[in-house]
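User: Sequence in, structure out. Go.
Assistant: Echoing your sequence, followed by the structure tokens.
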Amino acid sequence: MDKKLYTVIVGSGSYIPPIVIANDHFLDWEFHDPVTGEKLDRDNAEIIQKFNEITNIEERRYAKPEHKTSDLAAFAAKDAIESSGYDLESFDFLIVANNFGDMDIDNPRTDIMPPISTRVKRMLNMKNPSCMCHDVVAGCPGWTTAMIVADSYIRSGNFKRGLVIGSDVNSRVRDPYDRDSMIFSDGAGAVIVEGRESDVPVGILSHASRADAIDGGEWLKMAESINPAYEGKEMYIRMMGNKVYVYALSVVPGVVKQSLEDAGLGLEDVSKVLIHQANEKMDDAILGRLFKLYGKRSYPKDLMPMTIRKFGNSSSATVPTLYDLISKGKMEDHAFNSGDNIVLTSVGAGMIINSIVYRIP
């Protein structure tokens, strides 16, 4: 069999901020109705309990006041480089998936010039001018989108090795009056990818994507606070949670199935599904719907590792962070073995969905 060029992950890293924000942190906050703007008259303890029942989030991580998106991205990249032993100057490209650029703790205005990727390159003290940098902005699927871009780069033959990072500081763009924004957290994850010739399929086997901008373009966006009395003009994350939930359940399973079919695999060939950590019960329902597409009623409980209970939703960072923790043996009862087929999938603002089928070398 003739050898083909595949994109493989040869190193990974992550940065999980040290500031732990438990659910009771929000007991004294003032929440408003996202439709009417009126203050909710329910007790916050009840609101938080309902939130926990829906999402299974118990706590989340926030970045230190002095750290920004680029800092977290650089920390994750350093972890990947140091743990893998690769030469800092050996990379042909550096892609950073992020959604809001850099933000100061006291000013949520986004700063995206110069690009976060070039800031990370400077922070790493990477001198190689041939290492191309650019950002990817694609909502929560930013990192999976960046991986698809990286795969195209490598398969073109023009690039051999690169860094693909997902980093977000969502805590600075969450509306303090919006109960749904309790899901958001901060973090970063990174992988090193390179081209490998092989006569046996390995690394990225296939990917499928979908973007429903006409119907879903307004379901997750930036808007002013839901509190009409708030005088600030900052833009915050606004999410129509129920519409996003229904959309994800109805569409994500089909995209994952398409990626598996394109790889010539069935559901029984999958060892792990690394899904975007947005809502644990939603993810559970998505996987259940996927199995129903194959005529199965249930799925193995160790198939879908979860971090959302302790880490919350760190947007572009959730999937690469999951990958790094498992690859380094830091998640109990979860491991990667050579030959395992895993799915990397995410859904988010746009609405955008990606699903990547990856075979562990």
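User: And one key feature?
Assistant: The mean pLDDT is 94.
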